[in-house]
Give the backbone structure.
Amino acid sequence: MMRIYDTARQSVVPLELRDEGKVSIYVCGPTVYGPPHLGHGRHALVYDVLRRFLAWSGLEVTFASNITDIDDKIIDRAQRENRDWADIAVKCEGVWWQAMDRLNVSRPDLTPHATEYLGQMIDLIADLVDRGRAYQTSDGVYLSVEQVEGYGLLAHQSLDELRAGGGERELVGAEKKHPADFALWKLAKPGEPSWPSPWGEGRPGWHTECVVMSLDLLGEDFDLHTGGLDLTFPHHENERAQAVALDKRFARRWMHHGFVELEGEKMSKSLGNVTNLLDLMDRYDARAYRLLVLQSHYRSPIEVTETTMTNAEAALGRLDAFARRTAGLSGRADGSVLDRFRAVMEDDLDTAGATDLLFRQVREANSALDRGDDDSAAVAATTARELAAVLGLEFRVESSDVPGEIQDLADRRQEARAAKDFATADTLRDRLAQAGWTVEDSADGPILRRHGG
RNA sequence: GCGCGGAUGCCCGAGCGGCCUAAGGGAGUGGCCUGCAAAGCCAUGAUUCGCGGGUUCAAAUCCCGCUCCGCGCUCCA
């Protein structure tokens, strides 16, 4: 059985499912107000791999991930740029999916939008008000956290401790009964988008949508709620608080992944301030980011730098070379390796251990091929392909489109080689290298491939 | 101040009491292969896991203290 680190329990626990054979996952999706950044990318990759693995293990996975399409940040940008907020949301969502496609991240089964759930959010807030667990002020409706059993479960701090922190910040909303109370409904200021409600024209607070949508689509007591470490508090804490205040069972397990770190000043210069995911994918092979994410544990921070990305690309080169070399081989996957793969992945999603197994299979296949043992090579290659597929890693078998003049140089080099005119052949190879192409003389003839830079 | 998490070879990064040899990737070096390369294979690489104590037959792994680093602490993810 899959075991994961549960933020609430602070330990690795079995993922005991609500319904046998089925797993329901809610991933907090993006607020669409700008291009996705590296953190979004890691987020998407981690849960994409989780999902692929669970499905591969035979579970029926329901994967829901929302789009927050109404939020303060969207409104801010709309006002700053004098644009329609909905236009920003729609366009940014388009960019988001484009980025996901490039990362080879599968689409969620369900993609609820906040704006589709206004009615249900208002119902939920009204219910909380009826129960006396939420109250109205001059600027909105707030949840009273003191009436929530176990508030601080995810933050692992008591209300007093939470209050003690933060230093000398001004308390926003002086009418709040407790500083930790948070807005369920915000009354609109002039010019802001708004929807009618019993408390006046306004919009929902950020934390409410995920409660409504997860419960609506996955039902009470759904299996897994996930997101970045930064969402633990206040976002997830406040989602849970609302469900608890409604006497509803919420997520059974909470899973949070670590941050992406950029190298210090020096490198961020050479990286050209790449925090934008699209920029990163323009600069490097998009698969390299996935590999980088896979090679460390999801709860550890990852360092995205020129070096780590370049290393990942080099490793990818190894995988691609392997794929080219073994493209014609097919066999049965090695069951014992598959078992080990399952075991490491079930151990809190140990993707580093999984890539370890993948690379060992690659070496095994290459090694077998070198000693002429095609049968063993076929088994290792098939196994490797299966593991890679579960991890969402695709191999590049064909060389990219070769421009005519490059092909021409390569052909002339072959002629020279055939004529044993190696001086000419080497000169031509140098020219190819200068043009950014590497020649690999395989048993089946030369292979051209682009190299970095 | 409080909470959470880190510190492992040249770099990235697993491991979290013995089962294990401290994985895997990248870079380096030597060899095989190759006309030469590339790719691949083989070999090599931490008597040691931030520092200081302690527990244990046994610690990178547990406990205590310390030093650095990251993140959060009220709708700013």
Summary: Chain A has a mean pLDDT of 88. Residues 329 and 378 of chain A are 5 Å apart (CA to CA).
